[in-house]
Design a protein that fits this description.
single chain, 97 residues, alpha+beta, Multidrug-efflux Transporter Regulator, Chain: A, Domain 2, three-stranded antiparallel β-sheet, 3 helices, 26% helix, 11% strand, globular
């Protein structure tokens, strides 16, 4: 497959995320260093750079795993929901005013 150049707008559908997500990744400095510092005033990446980064960070969709030469990473915690903990009223301390 060829290696097209991608901007933030092309990254979202490639990685199957919301169109705002790549902008958030860029703001939080999570994206890899751009392959092209300025194309029409915007950063751009080679497709393989984004696929490699997505595989290394656990963001690669199943549909693209065949294109990656990087072993997928098991995501580390992040913002995954933790198991719910239930507390009954008998377990909490009474608060008196």
């Amino acid at each position: 497959m060829d290696n097209p150049i991608l901007g933030l707008q092309e990254i979202a559908p490639l990685l199957e995320v919301d169109k705002r997500t790549p902008h958030a990744w860029q703001y939080r400095k999570l994206l890899p260093t751009a392959d092209y510092a300025s194309i029409n005033g915007l950063r751009a990446w080679n497709r393989q750079t984004i696929i490699k980064w997505a595989a290394e960070t656990g963001r690669l969709p199943e549909a693209l795993k065949a294109e990656s030469t990087v072993e997928p990473v098991i995501p580390r915690g992040g913002r995954k929901a933790k198991a719910a903990t239930t507390v009954s009223m008998n377990d909490t301390a009474k608060v008196t005013a």
